[in-house]
Amino acid sequence: MKLVVLGAAGRMGRTLVKVIAETEGASLAAAIEREGSPALQSDAGMLAGIGENGVVVGSDIDAALEGADGIIDFTAPAVSVDIAKRAAERRLVHVIGTTGFEVGADAAIGAAAEAGATIVKSGNMSLGVNLLAVLVEQAARALGPDAFDIEVLEMHHKHKVDAPSGTALLLGEAAAKGRDVALADHSVKVRDGITGPREAGTIGFATLRGGSVVGEHSVILAGEGERIELSHAAGDRSIFARGAIKAALWAKGKPAGLYSMRDVLGLSG
Ligand SMILES: NC(=O)C1=CN([C@@H]2O[C@H](COP(=O)(O)OP(=O)(O)OC[C@H]3O[C@@H](n4cnc5c(N)ncnc54)[C@H](OP(=O)(O)O)[C@@H]3O)[C@@H](O)[C@H]2O)C=CC1
Ligand SMILES: O=C(O)C1=N[C@H](C(=O)O)C[C@H](O)C1
Known about the structure:
By secondary structure, this protein is an alpha/beta fold. The protein has helices at 11-22, 44-48, 61-65, 77-90, 105-114, 127-142, 166-178, 183-186, 238-251, 261-265; strands at residues 2-6, 27-32, 70-73, 93-96, 118-121, 149-156, 187-188, 203-209, 215-223, 226-234, 257-259.
């Protein structure tokens, strides 16, 4: 499968270039960065630390998509929404790992999927986190909102620009699904000052940033005299890259539509 990596000089882009080179059935068709990026004209393999691979980083996305089968995109929300439309026009696979979307972006991405793109989108592409989400959903269903409070805690490196993380929101959605409520109506993303006691049934989020932490998430279910913690720690970005490439290979030949990593991993149940 011929893949275009968008944001090829970024932390995830470089990891993807490396993992694609290690993956049977996948090849790097093009490596794209934004216009004006200092990475333009560099060799993508050199940036990824795997030695020269002959793929020169460019910024012409339309030329890159000619003859490609799919795009792997860990960039920024506005970029991913725009690329979804281009993927729809060409009926391509588009794997979206980008996080931090505003309300409304889901509708635009859904429209692109209806218009012809085969999109796999997830706030976390790792097997471990997607399994964790299944466990969180089960725990939230079993432990009712009057007896157990749910809090989602995350920590990431100091360069991360969005909060709560896409993974924290994915885990919050899983908890809300287990409780059969809408996360938007029950989430508490900020606490400061005299907040009053905790409201039963809410799902709280706490965000930590610092150093080089790749990504750590805990869902805490706190009851009277007992507490359950379900956690995941990412040690290396290759877990996200392997998941994203697996998603692209899975999506090739599938009907256009919007899919999740739970679909890819057979965890939709
Ligand atoms: N779903 C998942 O499993 C994971 C998701 N992520 C998410 O992926 C995203 C990227 O993370 P990360 O790699 O750490 O961030 P980086 O900032 O390291 O990488 C993003 C790259 O995209 C580039 N870029 C920006 N605009 C464009 C454009 N128009 N065309 C092509 N490239 C562009 C940036 O260039 P420049 O710096 O010059 O602007 C940068 O090189 C974030 O939203 C993050 O949360 C990260 C890890 C796992
Ligand atoms: O920005 C990151 O680094 C990560 N972003 C994703 C998120 O927002 O959850 C996934 C992972 O935790 C790393």
